[in-house]
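ok so I'm stuck.
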Amino acid sequence: MKLLVLDLEGTIFRTDVRLPGTSISSTIWQAIAHALGPQAIKEEVATHERWNEGRYRSYVHWMEDTIAIHVRHGLTQEIFDQLIASAEYNESVPSTLAKLDRTRYEPLIVSGGFRELARRAQYDLRIIHAFCACEYIFGDDKKLLSYNLLPCDFEGKIDFIRLMLREYKLSPSDWVFVGDGANDAHVAKAAPLSIGYKPHATLKSVVTESVDNFKDIIPILDR
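replied:
not stuck anymore, here's the structure
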């Protein structure tokens, strides 16, 4: 058996929002800024600029800065839940994972996105393992009260993959990665087999295979 490591935003779910001046699309992060209005958008774009300039110590610090924007501009549970519920799966994702031979591949979500979005995918797609960078905790007034952060984006994803390989007593070569974004390049380089789904140019240059339809990962896995 091998792990089938899946990115979440852009791979399982469509990324319909890319704010002007950013290089990474997202399903939820940038959609929150868009929902909170022009000033939130401006501040969100500024965090991307700071990240690209290397002004954050880590991905966790970038998230903390972004979360402060959400608090400042009044993110509510209603807005957040609506964005999670309205996210759309990429074409062929549900049908492809329904056909996946679970005796050969154990799906694992590792994402720099939200735990709440992964939970929805886990319910719909029968995936029992997921590590996500952020989980929101709302108070009785439905405003953001607290959050849980994990360093599982960019090179940090690899640490969580190694953890699951150890738990399943698999060798370091017993995994396949499927992703779409430039932030997945670190993982793709480390993976024994990596598949880019409509990959960003940075990712496409390092993956083993590229596909434009999610269902096309099955023939690759079968090989």
